[in-house]
Amino acid sequence: MLQNNPTNKSLKSPSSTKYTIITSSFNTQYTGSLKNACQAELLEMGVAENNIELVDTPGALEIPITAKLTAMHKNPDVMIALGVIFKGETYHFENTADECARGCQEVAQTHSIPIIYEVLACYNEEQAAARCGQDRKNKGIEAAQAAVRMAQIIEEFKTNV
Q: Which residues contact 12 (CB under 8 A, 6 or more apart)?
């Protein structure tokens, strides 16, 4: 991912680019912060509010199917997957994290739509709080920056072909 750089003026979104932010509703005290920071950063980089679609899913395992349905029916230029998964006492944590990542990559490859993956697999709440806070270290900001950079790359390919 891109390093957070609040003064990076080169990250301006192509004007017609459509973004979809898919957010897990589970652990909403963290995922809500990721989504808010991501959306605010997209707006800061010149994305029109009507070019940002927000979609909430019940949990991280539902992100890939939501991304697939979004790709099939809405055809955004870039998608952003946001979520927070905590390690518990069972193997469920690993399954959820692995399958969410695998599913998102499968959708991205199948539909040729980048999915910026910021589904955080955290061992504890301190890790989540450090990555979902109200400062520039919020991973939602990095996700937005990576999404805009991918939009720029897509635009470069379209204009240089």
A: 45, 46, 148
